[in-house]
Automatic annotation (TrEMBL):
Gene3D superfamilies the record matches: Jelly Rolls
Cofactor(s) in the UniProt record: Fe cation
Molecular function terms, GO-annotated: metal ion binding
Organismal lineage: Bacteria, Pseudomonadati, Bacteroidota, Sphingobacteriia, Sphingobacteriales
The UniProt record lists the keyword Transcription regulation: no
Keyword Ribosomal protein: no
Domain Quercetin 2,3-dioxygenase C-terminal cupin residues, every copy: 147-234
UniProt protein name: Pirin family protein
SUPFAM superfamilies per the UniProt record, alphabetical: RmlC-like cupins
Keywords, ordered alphabetically: Iron, Metal-binding
Length: 237
């Protein structure tokens, strides 16, 4: 088993006033040659955006972009004709493929929106751009894993052009879960702690810590307090 630990306070910190972003991996003005990616997981940004502010229209190409709102409402608009709002409990995916333009704004004037923006390197380039958004039943993640991303259009959650599986869970203090990898020969899992304290394969983790594990078939997850956890299984090659 191989592991890598990224403590919360070692992330890149970009504070633009209206936007405060923490970068687990190199992004924009934050560059760390030892923090470029975890396999196909290229970007994990923990964003907070002030009321009525946001990202103006900008392009993306050949990337699977997943947005997970944590608090507040995020307004999305793109050149594929999609104009919508995503909220906590929703999952949004955009396959940029041959190219897409989009904007993201806080839909509220008086409170922050907090969300994760995640980029996964696709397993094929120049696909037709695609947008999808679903609302999950949050109760389905209580003390169990709720799949939110997979490679399969007919599976639970949204799908991406990569052999990647994401799960989210809320675990009560003292409870334990197992996560068997879908492809243990090829994949690793990056664990990101949204809330609480947890021990993963004997590694103690706290809020917003990241922990990558590969060359293993299974993770053992024990909640040391009430914990919210995101697991991202991606190819390591």
């Amino acid at each position: 088993m191989n592991t890598i630990l990224h403590k919360a306070d070692t992330r890149g910190d970009a504070n633009h006033g209206w936007l405060h972003s923490k970068h687990t991996f190199s992004f924009a003005n934050y560059y760390n040659p030892e923090r470029m990616n975890f396999g196909a997981l290229r970007v994990l940004n923990d964003d907070r955006v002030s009321g009525n502010m946001g990202f103006g229209t900008h392009p993306h190409k050949d990337m699977e972009i997943i947005s997970i709102p944590l608090e507040g409402d995020l307004k999305h608009k793109d050149n594929m004709g999609n104009e919508t709002v995503i909220r906590s409990g929703d999952i949004q995916v955009m396959s940029a493929g041959t190219g897409v333009m989009h904007s993201e704004y806080n839909n509220n004037p008086d409170k922050e929106v907090k969300f994760l923006q995640i980029w996964v390197i696709p397993n094929q380039k120049n696909v037709s751009p695609r947008y999808d958004q679903i609302t999950l039943n949050v109760a389905d993640r209580e003390n169990k894993l709720q799949q939110i991303v997979s490679p399969n259009p007919n599976d639970e959650g949204v799908w991406v052009n990569q052999d990647a599986w994401f799960n989210i869970t809320n675990i009560e203090s003292g409870k334990e879960l197992k996560y068997p990898l879908n492809d243990p020969e090829r994949n690793g899992v990056y664990v990101f702690v949204l809330k609480g304290d947890v021990t993963v394969n004997d590694q103690i983790l706290n809020k917003r810590d990241g922990f990558g594990v590969w060359d293993t078939k299974e993770l053992t997850i024990k909640a040391d307090s009430n914990t919210e956890l995101l697991l991202m299984e991606v190819p390591m090659d």
